[in-house]
Amino acid sequence: MFTALAKKAATFASGVGTSIAQELVNGVKLILDQGHISNVKNGGFTLALKGSLLDTGYSNSTIEFLEPVK
User: Fold this and answer.
1) How far apart are CA 9 and CA 11, in angstroms?
2) Rounded-to-integer distance, Cα 33 and Cα 31, Å
3) Which of 5, 16, 27, 52 has its CA 20 to 30 A from that of 60?
4) Mind listing the pLDDT tens digit for each residue in 12-43?
């Protein structure tokens, strides 16, 4: 019984946290200043972008792509 209640509480809290995070993301502005396409092949290409994120909220953050985006 306690486990089921704890799971429901965790699911609710997760949903609330997700909703708050989504609201913050919705207000962000992505400004791209420059783009460069290279290594063009039949299966894809390499894309480098330079830009900034504005109106990101009250805390600092870092965005990193540890693997290529597919």
Assistant:
1) 5
2) 6
3) 16
4) 556 666 776 677 777 788 888 999 999 999 98
Q: How far apart are CA 36 and CA 33, in angstroms?
A: 11
Task: Check residues 3 and 52 and name the one with the higher pLDDT.
Answer: 52
Token pair for 50: 């330079």
Alpha-carbon distance 47 to 69, whole Å? 10
pTM of the model: 0.47
How is the chain split into domains, by residue range? Answer: 2-54
Long-range contacts of 28-37 (CB under 8 A, 24+ apart): 28/53, 28/54, 28/55, 28/56, 28/57, 29/53, 29/54, 29/55
Structure tokens at 53: 């994120």
